[in-house]
Amino acid sequence: MAAITRRPIAPPMPSITAAAQSPLQPSSDQILYQFSTLQMVAMAVIIFGFWNVPVVRNLINPLKLFTIGWHELCHIIVAILTGGRILKITIDPHVGGATIVEGGIPTMILSAGYIGSTLFGGVFILAGYTVLVAKIMSFVLGIGLLMPLALVRDKLTIVLTFVYEGLLIGFWFIDHAQALRWYCLFIGVMNILFVIWDVADDRFFHKTNDSDAAQFSILYPKIPTHVWAMFWIIFQFGAIAGFSILGIFAFKMTQEQMDAQAAMFLPTR
C-alpha cells in the first residue's frame, strides 16, 4: 500500500514590513527631520538668494568667508604639494576668492578647489544625520568662522561672525543638540554646491575674480566655460546624492539612540 504523502508546504513569503527594512530605507526619524531632497533644495535656494542679492547677501558674509576660505585653502595645499609657489591670496565675500600660483601642476591645483569643497560639504551633510558628528563638526565650524577675522575690517561682518558663533553655541542646548544637525546640513549644502554660487557670481553678477570653471576654459581653450561648469555641477550633485545615501545607510538611528550616542561626547540637555 503506497504511503500517503502531504503536499510540500511553500516557505513563508517575506512580509512587507521585513522587505521594507532595506539598508537604504530612511528610518522614521530620518524622514521626520530634514533628510529629504526637497529640504536640501530649499536650503540651496535660500543660500543662492542670500549669496547674490544685494544688501541681503551681507547677512551671510561670515558663512561665505568660511566657504570661500576652505575652497582657496584646498588650492593652496595642492599648489604647495605639487611644487607651486603662492604669489597672492584673496578671500572676499563680495569679489570672491583667488589664489595666484606660480609653478605646480595647474590641472590638479584648479581641481582641488571644487573637489575640496565637495568633500568638506559632504562631511557636514553626514553631520546632519547624527548629533555626535554634528557636535564634532561644530568645533571645525566654530574655529573656521573666527579665522577670517584676522583679515576682516568690516564691522558688520565682525558682528555677524559673533552672532553665528552664538547660534552655534546655543544650538548645543536645544533638544540635546539636535539643532546642530540643521546648522551642519546648511553649511554642507553651501560648501558642496559651491560651483553653483561660483559660476553664478561670474556669469550673472560679474564678480572681479573669475570662477574656476572660467579658469579651466583658459587652461583648456577647446572646452568652453559652460561645459566645465556643467561638468562640475553634475559632479557636485552626484556627490550630494552619494553623501545623502551614505548618511541614511550609516546613521539609521532613532532620536533616542542618537541622543544616547551623543551623550557620550560633551552631553547637554
How does this structure look, described?
It comes from Leucocoprinus birnbaumii. This is Peptidase M50B-like-domain-containing protein. It is a single chain. With 269 residues, the protein is mostly helical. Helices cover 62% and strands 6% of the residues. It contains twelve helices and two strands; from the N terminus they run H-H-H-H-E-E-H-H-H-H-H-H-H-H. The protein has a two-stranded antiparallel ribbon with strand order 1-2. A hairpin with a 3-residue loop joins strand 1 and strand 2. It is globular, with a radius of gyration of 23 Å. The N and C termini lie far apart (77 Å). The relative contact order is 0.15.
Write the layout of secondary structure elements.
Layout: H1 16-19, H2 28-32, H3 37-52, H4 61-81, E1 85-92, E2 96-102, H5 106-127, H6 131-146, H7 155-171, H8 179-192, H9 194-203, H10 212-219, H11 225-250, H12 255-262
Antiparallel strand pairs: 1-2
Helix pairs in contact: 3-8, 4-5, 5-6, 5-8, 5-10, 5-11, 6-7, 6-8, 6-12, 9-11, 10-11
Protein name: Peptidase M50B-like-domain-containing protein
Keywords: Membrane, Transmembrane, Transmembrane helix
InterPro entries: Peptidase_M50B-like
